[in-house]
């Protein structure tokens, strides 16, 4: 029996090669039927959300390891690295172009967004390097708001068909972080 983890791993490799996940081709690659594939993952959207998150989480981990500063500047440094790497990803750009509705639904309204908020919460809690910079009671809301600001810049073309100035987005993100210190 094939596990969900194995399917997600294979789907990540497929996505990196093709900028999408074709369920028929993935089932063939895994040497299972489409019915078995759907039984394991539930839906293409669910699988794509897992793929997008796993790839994003990998980039976030790399960004967190590269952080050289603490505090607000460190949080912004992580975000800057993450956004630059994501925008530079040819498979991710291909996915956004080919499947804008799916991308909008999964990236800003579903499981990817919820996981991004949880990851951002952890980044905010790490930013103080041993001392809390933000009251823990408000860190969930701050993480949510911060992720929404970043998403509004990162996915501006999906959300409004216009590109947002990255410098303006960073100033807005900095203001959100500073207002709550």
TrEMBL record:
InterPro entries: Homeodomain-like_sf, TetR_C_36. Signal peptide: none annotated. Residues 71-178 form the QsdR TetR regulatory C-terminal domain. This is AcrR family transcriptional regulator. It comes from Streptomyces clavifer.
């Amino acid at each position: 029996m094939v596990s969900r983890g194995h399917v997600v791993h294979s789907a990540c490799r497929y996505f990196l090669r093709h900028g999408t996940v074709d369920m028929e081709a993935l089932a063939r690659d895994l040497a299972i039927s489409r019915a078995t594939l759907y039984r394991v993952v539930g839906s293409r959207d669910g699988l794509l959300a897992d793929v997008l998150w796993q790839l994003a989480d990998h980039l976030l981990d790399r960004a967190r390891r590269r952080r050289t500063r603490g505090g607000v500047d460190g949080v912004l440094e992580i975000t800057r690295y993450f956004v630059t790497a994501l925008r530079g990803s040819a498979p991710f750009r291909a996915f956004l172009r080919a499947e804008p509705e799916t991308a909008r639904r999964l990236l800003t309204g579903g499981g990817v967004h919820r996981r991004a908020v949880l990851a951002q919460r952890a980044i905010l809690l790490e930013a103080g390097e041993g001392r809390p910079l933000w009251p823990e009671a408000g860190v969930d809301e701050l993480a949510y708001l911060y992720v929404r600001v970043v998403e509004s810049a990162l996915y501006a073309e999906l959300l409004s068909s216009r590109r947002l100035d990255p410098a303006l987005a960073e100033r807005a993100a900095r203001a959100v972080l500073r207002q709550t210190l």
